Amino acid sequence: MAYGKKFYTSYKSYNGWDYYMEFFIKDYVGSATEISLGQGGPTISYDTDSEDRDNPILASQMEIPFIVTDGTENGFVEALRDTYQEKDVYVYLYQSTSANEPPLWSGFILMDLGDKEDVWYPYEVKLKATDGISLLKDIDFVEDGATKPYDSDDMYYGPGRFTHWISKILRKIGAGTSDEGSYNDPHFRTSINWYNAEHSGTAQADDPLYLTKGKVSWTHSSDDNGNYTPMNSYDVLKEIMKTWHCRIVWWKNVFWIVQIPEYNATEDGTNLNPDNVPTRVYTLTGSPDGDRAYLGGKYETRYELMTGVGIDKLTGTTYQFYPRLKSVTAEYLTGGGANYYGGFPTWNGTTLDTPFLQQTIIDASAADDLYFSIPLNMSKTYSGELEVNFRFDIKATDGTTTKWLKRTGATYTWENSQPSVYPNDYRPLGNTILLPGTTPAQYIIFDKTIPTDSAFTGVWDFEIQLDDADWGGADSSVGGSDPSIGFGSMFLTPTTYGITWSNIPGTSNPFEGQFLTLNSAAGINIAGQTILVETALSDSANHDFGKMQWGDSQDATDPGNLLVWDGSAWVQSDFSGEWGVGTLAGTDSFTNLMLEEFMKGQASNIQIINTKLMVSVSTKDDDDGTLSVPNYINPVGRIRESVMGDHNFYIFKRGKFNTMFDEWEYEGWSVKDETPGLTATTTTVWSENGPMETDNGTIGM
Q1: Nearest to 502 by CA among 697, 357, 349, 696
Q2: Which residues pair with 500 in a beta bridge?
Q3: CA 543, 549, 555 angle in degrees (round to 5)?
Q4: What is the Cα gyration radius of the chain?
Q5: Model-level pTM?
Q6: Residue 441: C-alpha distances to residues 171, 353, 379, 492 (Å)
Q7: Which residue has the higher pLDDT, 358 or 556?
């Protein structure tokens, strides 16, 4: 699948900066021809789907005024409308005279040309290209190559480094690489400064996103048929950014991931050697590829520019405000609150439906025990009382090793072979007594704590099996008797007394029932936390982050559990909280640190600027004696404004860059780091997996 260059063009901006653009098309073979652009030239626009100060994703697109002058160019436009598919056509814009450096912006052309006009050459068509970030909403967060309907093997689980999950998502975007015609391959950079006491260090090369692991099993759900429904990749990326108080933006062939409070860092270096926010570099596959002492670059991605000194505000600037915050709150459910139950094999009188997959568990070995509670809807045609015994199998596998639950008397263990049936039956045993009468009722047939196994590290799939091959025989998996009659009423197949059973429809799970991981300290009813951070202010706003997916946990099997690298091993973060900003001596929980840092950025009214910024010929360069660099406005760095002694540092929220006119329509907000008096209140929130109930009350028997 080769890409060939079909079109190119070049132009100069009003202040004399050179630009060069190329179009690469899948399977194109031939020479490239020069095209013309319409008035105004290409524009690059950015937007976010959040109006709050917490706007974690800035997606971009470029509009290109493509002038059609002949049949070749007209055929290209028609092919965009009728033939080409998404990611068949890439466009690269260089702030140079040729493709001799990373592109300023690149993306793939969208097949969105609107109406077709009845005009002759020359005519103008507005082509739109996207960076692909917003299209992640249409891409499921599943293994590459997975197709619907999805099963458990198509899902992601973890734990994995946060840089690993970011890499997985960014590779789904389809950013242009050298194979698609780019000067170089894209990569991503991170600027994060939250550390745990167990982290191996806080040096420039120590990236908390690389030194911290999280699970992503919460990104999918399954139904009673074993079909899986994943979240889309955009929402997963947004959760990662929200959790770490970050934002992501595409510029200069880089996905920049920056923790928002880091924009408070001052520039302590020179043009030749910037020194502001430590940054780590990764290939798009997630491999570390160096680090540096500064965010951005020395030319088109400078960290700080100042209005009135190099860049100018045009008339019409307006200001709005985010109100000061009184409180911020978030909820993190922690400590083994997940229910992995997926149902029990069912019998409708003619067909046995088996096996039933349970939900996948990560690192079940970290639990002290496992807990199974199996309720069923059961009915019978026999009017008397019946004791029913179920002998079934519970199987666990990681795809390489398989374990089976074995019962020896009242003791359960995990073995490498399936339990034998004869001469001694070692299968798990479930039991219940069906009440007299033929009215269907709900019964719990199995309610036991069973051991975990040291082999259950990583991702393990569990399932419950019931075999009907021996029904009617002495070793039948389903049998029993009427306790009041005894031996004379014995049965070895459910058909004898018209016994049927089915799973009870659930609410948060497909079925009622419990398959839980337990720890000795907390047991089944394990709590989460709602954390409220507030000031003593009144008449101010509140911000609710809602449910957080990751945090410090009591239980290592928790889906949101965090692991940190201590230099020699991955260890669980302490539930009591050992996180801090740029230090290994922090005392905050992960969630509380996020809330406090957000509050520090909006303890007073935050100014929002809407303006038009431009760079003139006379002020386009800055020479501090170490290096002459352009005053190039960009979406990665910050803008410094000084008005009547009041200094504001703005970070970009949305806007449009007209490359021909050297102008930005710029909306940004002032970043701050204030120290208000804060009070944190932690409230216990019990998980839903308490005593099991239905609409009819607690399940009995």
Answers
A1: 349
A2: 379
A3: 125
A4: 31
A5: 0.88
A6: 51, 20, 7, 22
A7: 358
